Amino acid sequence: MKVNWFHLMPYRFLPENLETDHHSVWVDIPTNLYDSTRGHHLYNEFLDELEFADKMGFDGVCVNEHHANAYGMMPSPNLMAAAVARRTTNANLIVLGNSIAMYNPPLRVAEEFAMLDLISGGRLVAGFPVGSSPDDNFAYGFVPATLRERYYEAHDFIKQAWTREEPFVFNGRYNKVRYANMFIRPLQKPHPPIWIPGGGSIETWDWTLDHDYVYCALSYLGYEYGKRVGTGYWNRAVAKGMDLNPYRFGYLQLICVSESDEQAEKDYAEHLEYFYNKCVHIAEEFADAPGYRTEATVRAGLRGAVGGNAATLFRKGLKWKDFVDRGYVVAGSPATVRDKLSWILKDLKVGQLMALQQIGSMPKHLVLKNTELFAKEVMPSIKKIWTEEWEDKWSPRPLPLQQRAVPGQAEAR
Amino acid sequence: MSELKTTTLRSGDFTVKYYQEGRGEPLVFLHSAGGLPTFTPELKELSKRFAVTAPLLPAFGSTGEEHLHEDVQKLVFWGWDLLDALKIDRPILVGHSFGGMMAAEMAATEPGRVKKLVLVAPAGLYLEAHPMLDIFACSPAKLVRAAFHDPQSEAAKAFMTTPADPEGATEAIVARARALAMAGRFLWPNGDRGLNERLYRIKAPTMLLWGESDGIVPPVHAEAFKRLMTGVPSVNTHKIAEAGHVVFAEQPKAVLKAITDFCAA
Questions:
Q1: Which helix (H) or strand (E) holds A53?
Q2: Which of B21, B29, B35, B125 could form a disulfide with B60 if both were Cys (CB 3.0 to 4.6 A apart)?
């Protein structure tokens, strides 16, 4: 099992009345709720936390992209990954990801990912999400019905840019470049591993498997949602006659560890409630623009991780006990978390865990406590899962340490 | 009951279903993003005076919308290709809402091929002070309030009703998403695809018909259309009282009279 530490970078100072008096945390949230001085400190706090996860021995740190979003303040995850790259040595930089459909030309993503791979000595995972409706359609103005074909085209363009040896003409429908030429080459050959964060579209499962990429189920609904998506995904793998290597499948889980189950509630309940009441206060109208999901997915009744039912569920004013009982969060003493988590990961056949341990308004000292307890008391046994039976073919292959540049003492020869 | 007819365009990329009824001058009707579930009583009435052709747009019963991508020119060619295939020359072109935008685009592309143009609450312009409603981020209740002059009317209630059986309900959801997805190819995100820079090319005598209580495309858009249609000597603006965006449903008689008077003039 690979254990990775995921940061959403939420604004920790949303007002009491956000969910009652404001329409949505995403897309049309009033900008006067944001304080830039706090923003300065928050970014640095969050970067400290990512660096701490590296020191604690996590396999990777994960960042992602959102726009006009108070619970996900990374319009450019690449900037965060660049900042982390220089102050960490071991952790993989898992950028989950860049909404490639929106970048014209997508060559820019190919270049920035190559830069990250080079700076970090080959620790990059390149994440290519199709994109979310709130981000791509509403906040960035892209037509829902054509987003997916833009995505496929951008993916093909980036792959070519990474792998073709000569300058080439790219003549797509949405992107035309006469001299496509990536002089800088990614360190990992033929290119960094590609992971696809998904919200449960049937087509994306097939496409991910056909390309032999990792599929990542990212939701805030824990096991229940993971089971639905995981079952759909593995069924497709079976149908295609592919091996069921768990390292093909990533899964995000909210995790809260404390000295005891009771102490976990005392430490984290307030921040969980903040997360489910405020951070996921997403207006339903923005969750799923018409045309964003394919007809097959709509027909199958599958809604996104932030869409429809999910959004309504979040608004019911649930409490700590509900979050734990429903499995949204795996929480408690190290022993409790160890037992529950290893059961979930085995049941879902997860090989790439994304642990979300900074949640909602959680302040730094609790984030560090949560992370450290997990790393020391839970992670060692979790990491052993699958190592006997399966090989991880989808993680970065960095340069050996002794061949890598050391920040402050770097000199090319 | 009028029967749907079928034809194909562009080597089969598009299958087009259309209604065709009546005798007289050719009149082509392009429906709104609400679709055209039947040959409506209003079209029936028009077919007493005109040879009415009412195609179902791609995704609204016809297929092939994926070949349109998000390209207005492809939508315009779809329209003219269809009229060529049906051998319809110099029609009176009537379009409602999204269909109004399409009719205006067709008339701007082939100004000599439209005898008269009737735009009923057409989409297609972005006015900063009076933007079109974001129909893509609307609850059904909000949409009804904006679309109808009287949201309590039977017509409004019928609009809100979904089939009771689960299968029918699913199909209704799929059909609605598909229709709005198609409209979104040309109206996302704010309705502006450059029609304002093409309206000057229109030559056909034009009537702008608007419900006074239109909450989807504000009636003030009529003034902007008129101002931009510099190639039409006199644009006739006709506002209809006690009607919202769904003018045909709310004031069918007034709409029919306005259209027939304008075409007879």
A1: helix A36-55
A2: B35
